[in-house]
Structure formats: C-alpha cells, structure tokens
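tmp note - Alpha/beta hydrolase
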Amino acid sequence: MQDDIRATTKTEGKEHRTTSNGQEVFVWEKPSVGEGPVRGTILFVHGSSMASQPTFDLQVDGMPEASVMDWFASRGFNTWCFDCRGYGRSYKGEDVLATIADGADDAKAVSDFIIERGEKGPLLVYGISSGALRAATFAERHPDCVSRLALDAMVWTGEGSPTLEQRRKKIDAWRGTVRRPVDQEFMWSIFNRDHPGTVHERFAQPFIDQVLALDDSMPNGTYIDMCTRLPLVDPEKLEAATIVMRGEFDGIAGVDDLLAFFKRLPNADKEFAFMKGISHASFTQKNFLIAYQILHGFFTRPASDYHG
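out:
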C-alpha cells in the first residue's frame, strides 16, 4: 500500500482538561504541521477497552505513521482525541459506568471546548467500535456539531456478531461490577479473536504496553449497552455525511447489520468501505494504511454543489 508523497512527522502534542457533567476529561491535541491552510479539525473517539492516546497516538520507535494523529497532522489537519470518563487520564470514580450515552456527553463537552479555543466547526468525527456508537449518538443529538462522520468497526442491532454472542454469556458479571480487569492476555485476545495474523507485528506490544500504562481495568458500561440495549442509534436521524468502515475479518461488525444501517442513512453523501485483511482494530493492523487512506479520502471529499 503506497502512502502519499508527504512524509509523516512526529508532532508535539498539547494536553488539556475540560469537564463533562462536572467531571474531569483529559483532552489531547496535535495541531497541523502541514503547509498551507488547515484542511479540517478531526475529533477521534475511542472504544471500550483502551484510552485515546494508545488508540490514536500510538508511539512506535522509527514509525511516526503508527500515530493516526501524526499522520493526519502531517497532512494539514488539526487532530484531537480525549479519554471518556472512566478511562485513562479522565475521571475514573466508581460512580462512572461509562455508557454509550456518557461517552456522547463527553464528546459534546470536548467539541464545545475545541470550538471555544478557536477551531472552525463543525468537526470531522471518527469513532471506532463502541467509540463509533458514542460518535454516532453525539452526531444524532447534535447534528450542527458534525460535518462528516466516520463509523469504524461499529455494530447496529448486534445481529451477526459472534463476539457479542460470546460476551452476552458474561452479562451477569458485567452487571455485577462497575469495572473489569485488563491485562496482557486480554489485550492480546483483541488481536487474535477474529483472525490471527492481521495485527502489525511492530504495533501490537507497544499498543498493549501503552494501554496498560494508563489502565489496569476498564468500565463495563459499553459492554452492557452492546449486549442488552442495541440498537442505540437511529441511522435515519444522522444528518451528517457518513462513512461506514468494516474490516474484512471483524467479529463484532456484522456485514448485513451494517448494510441495513447504511441503507437508512438519509444523506446521499455516504460511503460503505470494506477493508481487506483487517480485523477489528483498524489502526493497529498490517493494512493500517488502507484505513488511513479511506478516511483521508472521505474527510477531503469536495462539498456537493448540486443537491437535486
């Protein structure tokens, strides 16, 4: 897979803090280092079992392109991510279950913070796995905040998802506690459960180490939501231009389920992208540049002049 001609530069990040429902939220910024005007502002939304920096600003020696934030910052975008409450450097009290709805609240708080600091809205928003549900819920509630919405590794009704079928067997355990422990074995299972061999051999261990440096447990809210409360998003209420991204071997995102979701999206500026050789965690895969390039193409698509 050929990258474009611009090299990826490791970018200096800036740490911020804001609040969501009165609780602290960690926000991480990597501004554009590209030449010319800023091409857009991206907000990345993480999933159930890892905080934001390992997911979107993965640091691998000699491979700045391992960070999707650095990759897009090098191509003219201002990039932002945040830890949902319950994760990483955000508030992690026992009163936070970190549901999909909670994550959507956090996304709105961070969006407001970004715009208040002078960024031009509405934002380009990407979410992966339960982060896609968080992002979609945010976009459904606040359509004026999102110009383009990218939903990667998402589930809609849960039909055709073997991973969720297995998780439902443990629903009593998820409901019985606020948090679940995570360790090296669990993190490796994310890479091996769908199709062993798809993960990038230089990304896997740094990713795991960087996740576990921030958290030794994760909140149960998204697991409970995805096992018992789907569907959580109404595609017919998503006004933004939307792309649905689905890895070839993803065990959570059922193809027919997502196609049914896609058909109901009302904005004709929409796209469904299959990603060859990719499992659930797109940005840590051997084929990660496929995901990057698909997302770049969607975020740089010209506005439509004719609307019919």
